[in-house]
Design a protein that fits this description.
With 848 residues, this protein is of the alpha/beta class. β21 and β22 form a beta hairpin. The radius of gyration is 25 Å and the shape is globular. It comes from Hymenobacter negativus.
Length: 848
Amino acid sequence: MEDSPKTDPSKAGKAHEQKAENAPKSGERPDQGKAPAPDHYRTEPQDTHIHAHIPAPDVANAKYEHPVLAQPPEALTGLRLEGREKVAAGVTAVIKSMQFSWTEGGVGRGTKALLGLNQKDGFDCSSCAWPDPDEHRSVAEFCENGAKATASDADDKAAGPEFFAKYSLAELSRMTDRDQNNAGRLTHPMVKRPGDNHYSPITWPDAFDLIAKELNACASPNEAVFYTSGKVPNEPAFLFQLFAREFGTNNLPDCSNMCHESSGSALSPTLGLGKGSVTLNDLHEAEVILIIGQNPGTNHPRMLTALQKAKRNGAKIIAVNPLIEAGLVAFKNPQDFMNPLKALGALMGDGTPLTDVFLQVKVDGDMALLRGIMKHLFEAEDMNPGQVVDKKFIDEFTVGFADFEQNIRNTSWEEIEEISGISRGQLLEAANLIAHKQKIITCWAMGVTQQRQGVQTIQEIVNLQLMKGAIGKPGAGTCPVRGHSNVQGDRTMGIWERMPKTFMDALQKEFNFTPPTKDGFDVVEAIKAMHLGMTRVYFGLGGNLLAAGPDTELIAEAMRKQKLTVFVGTKLNRGHLTTGETSLLLPTFAHVDIDMQKSGHQMTSCENSMGVVSQNKGILVPLAGDQLSEVAIICGTAIATLGDKTRTDWVAMTENYDVIRDHISRVIPGFEDFNTKLRRPGGFYLPNGPRERKFTTPDGKAHFTKTELEKYEVAPDQLILMTVRSHDQFNTTIYEYNDRYRGIHGERRVLFMNPADMASRGLKAKDLIDITSHYKGEERRVEKFVAVPYDIPKGNVCAYFPEANPLVPIGSVAKVSNTPTSKYVVVTVVPTAANNDLRIKEREKMMA
């Protein structure tokens, strides 16, 4: 066993250990290990366990049938419309960050939290997984979104036993999602017993015993579902999957099933690794950057700094998105306000222009768009032989090129233009930027992954990179931009429902038990199984499945059918209120909190979007209460549940997290000497074969893919809906009712519509509407949204999640990945069916 606090307690989380040499350099490409760190995704169409049809829930009338609301309340909060902003960040972002931080945690506590955020000896941002610089880090190494997430975690208000005694579950459910989050940090373990309408206090031993009793009452371990949020660090994630598998099930759905599952499903069979291939410095060095189906200004604001640096180095940027987002147009870097030479220009100027070519694609039209660009590139190659397509790279490193080339050439321009909504001339403009460049990076996010053909679209992205030889060298490669802080790391740690035999064998050898062999449920399968009565216990380690998943009311029905629901979290959310017969609400630490155990101040780790594993060590004293760390909660549950059946030393892992990392170092390739490498400044890079042109596919080659471009017909009155975040939101956490970049203030129940689509339906700005989704003859309806005219392609509409999630059918999923199609929902829109008096009152309120 490597030297660790188990043998030398003085090593536990000590700052002096972080002075090791060889901090990673993201521009270098050394041999990063003998074997790539595992990354596990489906590579073929899903053969779901559950074929039974589940009827659509009565979405519109659910509010009358259940006292605890699963959907956010319909009461409107007062819409004010302004023009769309044309520049992201700037001084407004700084002001908003400070206001929120000081409001939530107080000036002293809030400022201390921000100063430790994303520092090499600090804690990891609990928001997005964008990488930190390997070298110099600013004193303010965070963005507006990260500041809000950290301030929320650092909240000095408590939602303790008195709070839950005051409000029933029904009353809590009638609060907005913002007000639930702002109620304060959870401080004590709480229980809702059968027939109760309040949560009440429970001791930790009793909570563990209650979980153990219900789990051990299962007729099969597969009657339990263990869900994970991407906010969970590596160490508790590893323990969570270990406990589930020692208990006897692979039912380990997680939030990646709903976001980048499509990315991994496309990258694994084509490049051999389901992760991106680039580093942060590659973005700085790129000649062309494509950004497809991503809004960095709201979802990954620190990416804007990298794009700004790339632009200043001469890069061209092509943006592909149905909405013209401020963060794709221009950027004012808040860091410039700290530089006397740049401050005036940053304050008075127009910011750094980012996008050179903006392609306002139709929803679900990205595959056709990519084909159009590649068709132009082949035509350019015909006119300039050997100058556009990298034949040398293709011959040496790839297979399948001929079939791919024929497929692209055979696609008609009429089909490309109709499906994408982009003209041949516009596509030529983008292709001309790419044709004679080799350092090309393509970035994408859920705007691609949540389409019906998300996997196939990403395979076309890979095709584009491969035909240009733009992978495995500085300034080039694939860049799926992940969401939550450790969503990529959780998968690396084994949070997956169908882990390969190599992982299971290593787990068996290390912990001396036989892991289950039957594949488990992903998110969609788990929801179906819960609804069909196939499970009795739901255990959620963080997150908010009710608000993150599709078909909100169907999830609510599924939760109510459980004997026990267990929610581990830091703050209250709507998912904690729609419960099983018995429910536990267990408070845990956030990234910002100091975690003291028997061996001292503990640290955990997270893996960012570019495969860097770095430490997370809290700096704030937790609020007074009875919280436990995620590690302690999992270990306490395991001890109570498994009893004499386990040979794992759960106590040792609770007392010293380096013991967990010792185990990980022997189970997961790429984590050798984990404890030593984690203490290096900035952490360490995991092995990445595609980054070095080592394609770990079965034949050692990168694979071109011949995809099928499908055209879908909709009725004349139907529109295609996509769901998005607002700017004052991260994942399902709502910080405020505003979306200032899009000009929305004081309201979330809005539907962005093309003005022509509004006119054809007799709608005016701020009219109240009902939205109905249509899928295989079934309908789901949400009421009392507000119509907002917006620059969006005709035939497309857009709304925020979680408000619009009840419209997403559980059965509508992406091919192969089984990801819910939140970026392709067929809907109709009509004036609201609510009674006229109420409509008038709401209109008067909005107009006031």
